[in-house]
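Box 4.2: Ligand-aware structure prediction
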Amino acid sequence: MEKPFSPACERNKHPILNILKETILPTDRRLLEIGSGTGQHAVYFAPYFPQLEWFPTDLRPNLAGMKMWFDEARISTIQKPTKLDVSQDDFPKLKFDVVFTANTFHIMHWKDCKSFMKLLGHRLREGSRAIIYGPFKYNGDFTSPSNADFDLELKSKDPLSGIRAFEDVNNNMIKNGFELIQDFEMPSHNKLLVYSRLKFVK
Ligand SMILES: C[S@@+](CC[C@H](N)C(=O)[O-])C[C@H]1O[C@@H](n2cnc3c(N)ncnc32)[C@H](O)[C@@H]1O
């Protein structure tokens, strides 16, 4: 098997890192990544946050590829990649300070996005952050013609995928106990949404 490679990850890793540096705290101990893909983000980001154990996850078919990146990089804080399908699996039974996900909401079906946000609400405690990177629509409009084309391309491959409305994501996050801390403009018409878990009510 050839080591997988994502050109998009190489393009977006620097701007994402700049925001992670503002958002991840020195007191944070564990980060769960959903939809880690090739594992390139974990390999690039983890060394900048040596206080953090980084837990990469994805659907089972992606685990072998990311393991190739992790075996090569030998970064002690990156944990063994595990299968986590937000439509059927729970988070590992650990306290996570941060959940990070990049370019997953437009791939996952909307019902799975909602399951994911529900899991975030169930499993994160007050002050923990959820960081969501990717393209979103605002007030029904794509943020660029290229994103409108990308949405059509996604839907031609899978009609249930597609660029999500920020308002739908935001309403679901609020419903699940989060407040939006920041909505960063990113290169190539992407966004990075930072949410904080409000007080946990059982
Ligand atoms: C476009 S890739 C992004 C990968 C990586 N985060 C990146 O930025 O390059 C979308 C990822 O979401 C994952 N994914 C899709 N459905 C999922 C689900 N139900 N649960 C968890 N991950 C899922 C895919 O396997 C894939 O790795």
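In the box above, the bound molecule is S-adenosylmethionine. Residues 6, 8-9, 34-37, 41, 58-59, 62, 84-87, 102-104, 107-108, 112 surround S-adenosylmethionine (CB under 6 Å).
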